[in-house]
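hey so u asked for the seq, here:
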Amino acid sequence: MLASVLFASAALVAGSAMANDNPHTQPVNTPSAVSRAEVLADLEIYRESGLAAVEQSETYGYDNARRDAAKARYAELRSSPYYATLVKKFGGSAPATAVAGR
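ran it, structure tokens below
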């Protein structure tokens, strides 16, 4: 009787330990098509355009004119040579395209 209880508890512990080792739930390191310098340059433009401030304001969703102006300014900066300058500033090479999120 004692042996069967010990076996059952050992099987339970081993089963729960193996259940935590599911390879499908482990993070996958997928290489990005965008360099770190491009991400930092995009973040800088996002902040400079005013889009970050608009999305963090209490009137987000109501102040559509301000959001549209910030989005237009973001698109303008993103497609300008300024973006390539920022990428170089952050240590990257000039991007082939001006769009980060293809």
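The helical segments are 2-19, 36-48, 51-56, 64-78, 81-89. Residues 2 and 52 are 65 Å apart (CA to CA).
lmk if thats what u needed
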